[in-house]
Amino acid sequence: RNVHKHVFSVLLALCRTPKGTWPWGKNKNFVMEMRWHEKFSIIFPDFTKGSGLLMSENKSNRYTSGAFHPFTHVYTQSDVMRVIEHARMRGIRVIPEFDSPGHTQSWGKGQPNLLTPCYKGDVPSGSFGPVDPTVDTTYKFMESLLKEVKFVFPDSYVHLGGDEVSFACWQSNPNVRTFMEKMGFGKDFTKLESFYMESIMNMTAALNRTSVVWQDVFDYHERIPQDTVLEIWKGETYQAELSRMTKAGHRVLLSAPWYINHISYGQDWRNSYAVQPQNFSGTEEQKKLVIGGEVAMWGEYVDATNLNPRLWPRACAAAERLWSDEEKTMNADLAFPRLEKFRCELLRRGIQAEPLFVGHCKHEYDGL
Amino acid sequence: RNVHKHVFSVLLALCRTPKGTWPWGKNKNFVMEMRWHEKFSIIFPDFTKGSGLLMSENKSNRYTSGAFHPFTHVYTQSDVMRVIEHARMRGIRVIPEFDSPGHTQSWGKGQPNLLTPCYKGDVPSGSFGPVDPTVDTTYKFMESLLKEVKFVFPDSYVHLGGDEVSFACWQSNPNVRTFMEKMGFGKDFTKLESFYMESIMNMTAALNRTSVVWQDVFDYHERIPQDTVLEIWKGETYQAELSRMTKAGHRVLLSAPWYINHISYGQDWRNSYAVQPQNFSGTEEQKKLVIGGEVAMWGEYVDATNLNPRLWPRACAAAERLWSDEEKTMNADLAFPRLEKFRCELLRRGIQAEPLFVGHCKHEYDGL
What's the Enzyme Commission number for this chain (chains A, B) (predicted)? Predict the structure, then answer.
């Protein structure tokens, strides 16, 4: 079964963007990052976990076979360029995520031999696992993909993913096991994942791009290039993780407390104000390495029908926490009227931002 | 502080109604009831907890003073008639709820002396509590309101509310305490509430209408008119409550397990399939008294920006549970493709129904 998520209309997304003031929508495909020091925002469109594949104009089959439909359910290069330009005019950078070696089922549809064939006993089961890190063709493919990414995305960062890799399929495959032996990895598949990630981080560096990777890569493999930015998505222990990562000298993005696709009843935006990204055990130098946070709206349960009301104004709360003086914005009760006013402003501009609580907007009376 | 909820555009609601097949939207203002025996649906627009007040054309101040705005944030009689007619053409009945004695803060704005003045020590505090059940003017007002309701709503049922009455304000008021003494109620304010509810249920009967009330009224006061329909909203103990109410010979509506305004992450529509409204301790005769269920989408966090995606297709799951053979629809996994297909049908008709999970709709390829 393909793990496609939802495809978003780029045009819809663009039309729905509040102009100039706030960061742009995100979801499984579009994930937004917001830095507080510089007060600008970055979008992470995730083209790989999702249904939308970046379509290379001249090699379309290769990238579009995994899409729900090769004409209607892909993002073309010109779609992407429109997004980047629209964002650029508003001071927003676009950083794509191409998440491997896991979350790549849709890639496998267009790229034979990219994914690891899973085995049942001595025979292939017919299903596929993560990218196969044991064959040269994988690295050739990744290099050509990253070159194309560099061509399409001007930003100096690229997110390489690296999260949630299941080892069961690798373990079932005799070629992978042979490779493990040859490399002296024993039974430790985290070493195999690290080997793969190190290769694509090096490729990325050779293309003069800086890698961002999910925390899994650091958790498995502490010796990763110093300038790689690490991103935290696991909620339970993020303060300890911040401490460890910055101690190792890495810059860090914090996303765990802002997974706002995890909805709950009531005013859950209040949680955003309780987050203190620099409140962990470490030196002042370490604190400075926490360069920002990211609001995530993963798209398992979100598409164009509910993206805007689910995202706004809940993302605004995270934005205020990241962009404003923490001391002055800790109190969620005091934040409430500010957010309420801003939500009315979004409505007035045509963004379907959901209500924070009972009430109404003053502009509803305008002209009466 | 006024406890106004959100006002819905009647026009929007009407335009967004799926035609002919499914029950119509609901929320704090519009709550939908679905009966499974008769396979028709009923809407409960709740005009009293909410911001929208039924506007009497010739006595407008009286009803509109509690609205956010007397022109833009009210439902007029002709709005209501359009809703009723639109619903009628689709086999849907509209039953209004006028919830008292609690949830009436907005009524107090237009109707002096209707609400109980709360006291702080020996002096009025300036705030108001539930309807004042100790003065004649209250009953005169309720009678004229119910007469108007009868004129506007043709259905034979009317929902009188009766839930969540706080006694603190009544207790603080010296006139109420004197009345309690005179009536021999002691310190038991549930008796005072029962006295009030009994009066308005009798009024309703005299107007040839059948009352629906929330479970609170039964919980406080078991001797209520036999033909009154009781509705269950408290989630924890609804099976025991079903048992008690039907043992007392009352017809019952079950809403507790379908409070779908209480959102959570993931496929919470699955819960609807686990509900067995007639699975409680009682005779076959008692089971027959459970005449239906109601999906509730109370509007504290819902308005026109998010009503449709939050309601659909989640309400469809409850509809199937209530309208289809329970034995044949217990399995939520088997229900998934049915719901998914129906959700695509809603999308095709222009209803912004949110996704059930990752995926796409076949009609997105039509004509390609």
Answer: 3.2.1.52
